[in-house]
Write a structure and sequence with these properties.
By secondary structure, the protein is of the alpha+beta class. The protein contains six helices and eleven strands. It has a five-stranded mixed beta sheet. Strands 1-7-8-6 form a four-stranded antiparallel beta sheet. Strands 10-11 form a two-stranded antiparallel sheet. Helix 1 packs parallel to helix 6, helix 3 packs across helix 6 and helix 5 crosses helix 6. It binds a DNA duplex (16 and 16 nucleotides) through helix 5.
DNA sequence: AGGTTGACCTGGACGC
DNA sequence: TGCGTCCAGGTCAACC
């Protein structure tokens, strides 16, 4: 569900409720969403203040006043939000933490592809590539030059570029007018430059719109995004391309649904 | 080693 | 109404 723009929106909307406040009690924890398994998260959080709340790729990173860190990954269906403690509890709430002042942090995830990952104080290497919003074209060119996979598949590889998912890969490739099955290493310098610009523009606009809400996604205060209304190709199979009116085509690439305009993005 | 596939989960949409 | 099938915004481990 959540890619870079959605996670960015979650972090931005959670900050006012969390930053510089103390976490009081862990009220509920489903143990199988925690890594490492068996870690005493309740003891680690009790009485700790949240000093920083940041996004790294698709991860929401908490830094406590002890300098310890943990991150939450939302997987496909995860939600992280603050609610009033007496708001009705939805199904699949896996972590509930009371916040100084009476509100409650809730991690809800029906499919449980997401999770809570304790990092401690170590400056652990996360195995993630660079952030796309600050990526320079030569860096993107180097990442793509090293692989013969389809460019769309390469964009989804978080060790090459971290934060893009299925929606924004398709949207960026359409804006750059590049066919998703083109071999990553075959792109010309000009195409890489176009792609770099398209990624940044697409992500910035999506962030400004609060992300894309196809089905589950809501931000940290429960609001839906609106960028799905501006999608050019994603989930628009058979509908007209906004540039040339040709029906949008859908293929399966690397097991993922892939949408593109056969006219604007020729092979 | 690089690249591809299936598995992990639940729920909603659709067809019969 | 009910049941089966397919699909979903992500990431791994297991395979060629």
């Amino acid at each position: 569900m959540p890619e870079l723009p959605e996670v960015q929106s979650v972090v931005a909307t959670l900050r006012p409720a969390l930053l510089h406040r103390r976490l009081e009690r862990v009220l509920h924890l489903r143990p199988d969403v925690l890594d490492p398994p068996g870690f005493d998260l309740a003891a680690a959080l009790a009485g700790r203040r949240v000093d920083r709340l940041e996004r790294r790729a698709k991860r929401i990173v908490f830094q406590l006043d002890t300098a310890e860190r943990f991150f939450i990954h939302l997987g496909m269906t995860g939600r992280l939000l603050v609610a009033d403690a007496d708001d009705p509890l939805p199904p699949h709430a896996h972590l509930l933490v009371s916040i100084e002042g009476g509100r409650q942090l809730r991690f809800i995830d029906p499919r449980r592809f997401g999770g809570i990952f304790w990092m401690g104080r170590a400056a652990r290497h996360l195995g993630l590539g660079p952030e796309p919003l600050s990526l320079r074209p030569d860096r993107l060119a180097a990442a793509l030059a090293g692989t013969a996979r389809a460019v769309k598949t390469a964009l989804l590889d978080q060790s090459l570029i971290a934060g893009i998912g299925n929606i924004y890969a398709d949207e960026s490739l359409h804006r750059a007018m590049i066919h998703p099955t083109r071999r990553a290493c075959d792109l010309t310098r000009d195409e890489v430059r176009r792609l770099n610009r398209a990624i940044k523009l697409t992500l910035r606009r999506a962030i400004a719109a609060g992300g894309s809400s196809i089905r589950d996604y809501v931000n940290g205060v429960g609001e839906r995004g609106s960028f799905q209304q501006s999608h050019r190709v994603y989930d628009r199979t058979g509908q007209p391309c906004p540039c040339c009116r040709t029906p949008i085509d859908r293929i399966v690439l690397g097991g993922r649904s892939t949408h593109f305009c056969p006219r604007c993005q020729p092979r």
